[in-house]
Amino acid sequence: MQITIIAPGSQGDVQPFLALGKGLLNDGKKVRLVSNQNYEEQVKLHGLEFWPIEVSMEDIIRTEKMREALESGKLLRSMARMGEELKKNAALLVERSLDACQGVDMIMAGISGLFTAHSVSEKLNIPFVQAYNIPFTPTKLFSGALFPKFPSWLGYRFSHRLTQQMVWQAYRPTDKIVREDILKLKKSPFFGPFKSESLKNDPIIYGISPSVFTRPEDWSDNIHLTGFWFVDPPENWTPPQDLEKFLQTEPSPLYIGFGSMSSQKPEEFTDLIIKTLEKTNERAVIYSGWGGLSGQNLPDSIIIVDLVPHAWLFSKVKAVIHHGGAGTTAAGLRAGIPSIIIPYHGDQPFWGHLVNKLNVGPAPIPRKNLTINRLVKAIEKVSTDQEMQEQASVLGKKIQEENGVDQAVAIINQIIK
Known about the structure:
417 residues; alpha/beta; Rossmann fold; 2 domains; 7-stranded parallel beta sheet; 5-stranded parallel beta sheet; 46% helix
C-alpha cells in the first residue's frame, strides 16, 4: 500500500508526520512525504520517500515582514502574512503534490496541507484522511485552538468555527490557483469546504494524548484521538560530545528553544535570555533554531546546540522554555517536566493556557510581553513549586505509557478494510 502525506510548513508541521510515516513504514506501507526542501535530510533519515517543494521554510520565516508579523502578537496580521506566502508558492506545492499522489492508495494531511490535499484527492478520486496535532473539530467542551480565552457564554463551538475560518480565509486566495487554474476543479464556497460531504465524513485522526484532554462526546464516530506522535532518535544517532559533557555536570540545566520562530532583534533577545539566567543562577541548553540566538561570548553555564532530538534531550533537563508549538509542548509533557511557554502566534497560546490549566507550567508569557523579570518569576516557579513538578511527572508517566503512532496505524488499517 502506498500513502502520500502532504506536510509543508515549519518543523512543527512536519515532525508529527515523520513519526506517523515511520510507523506506517514499519507496518509495511510505502510512504511519501511532500514538504519543503530544507527537511530532506530529516525525512530520509527516517526512511521515508521525500518529494521536495523547492522552497525553504527557513528562508520564509527569516524574512523581515514575517518576523515582524510573528512578533507582533497580532493574529490577523500573522495569518495574513502566512496567506501571502502560501499564494506565492501555491503552484509549486500543488504540482509536487499532484505528482506524488499519482497511483497511491491514500492521501493524508494536517492543517498546513489540508486544502491542497483535499483538492488533489478530489481530482484523483483517492481516499483522504485528515490528521491533526491541534484541535480543529468543533466541540462544546473547550475553545478553538486560535481562541484560548474565548468566552464560554458565546459557545465554544463558535470559537472552533472561527478558527476554521481564520485558517481558510488565509488560504482562500490560494484556492483559486490550486482548484481553478491548475486542477480545473469548481471553486470552493466562500466559507470553505468544511461542510462538504467529503471533509465532514472523511476519517480524522488526532495525534493528541487523551491524558491532556478527553475525547469530546460530541465528536462523530469518524474522529479518533490516538495519543501524541513522537519521533525518537534513529538507532545510530549519537549526541554531540560537548553536549553530553555539559549535561553530566550538576545542577541540571534548563532547555530554551523557540523552534522555527524568528526574532527581529536576535542579539537583544539573546541578551535577555543571558541576563535572566544570570539572575536565576541557572544553567541552560539553548537551541539556536531559526531565531538567530547567538552563540558568541557565552558563559560556561550555557551551551548552544543545533537540532537535537527532544525525546533524548528533555529527559536530561529540569524544565523547558519554548514557544508553545504543539510538538515541543507534547515532548515537554512526555518528559514529565514543567514548561514555560512564550507564545508568538497561532495555536501556541492555546498550548500555553492548556499547560497552565493542567498545572504543569506557569501562565504563558506572550512574546511581545516578555521581560527579564517575568521570565525570572516563571523560572523560579518551575524550580520551587513541588506540586507542579509532581503533576508534570505524573502526566509524563501517563503519556509515556501511550503509543499514539501504533494507535493511528491501527485506525488507518481499519479504514483501509
